[in-house]
Amino acid sequence: MHIIKACVTDYKKVALLFNEYRVFYKQKSDIKAAERFIYERLHNKESVIFLALEEGEAVGFAQLYPSFTSIGIKRTIILNDLYVTEKTRGSGVGAALLQEVKEYGKKEKKDSIVLQTAKDNARAQHLYEKLGYQKDDHYFYYSLSL
Q: Which pTM was predicted?
């Protein structure tokens, strides 16, 4: 397995995984919308996507969005999406993607990596905690649908 930083020409490979990721989170499958979304993020340089490949096949991805921490007065990374195909879960793909994200953050002199996951996604929570991510028990997160 090896990990690459995805470019625009990789958008269809990423989009297949992105569609599976959305279905995992109970969204309706829509490969055309997934392709359009990923293409736009890469084309407009609005996100950084790392793609895990095993014998040329895409088996996982991590999508990062740049952000800032006002309190820390620094740049940070939002690890918005992390997905590994069902058949390769438990094989180290997720950990390898997270290591790549960490190295990227250090190289780019980011302050931190932040993420959120579903309360019932125990497998992901275990991986994050194993790799040193700390659960935030101090703040509530709110959202407003528009």
A: 0.92
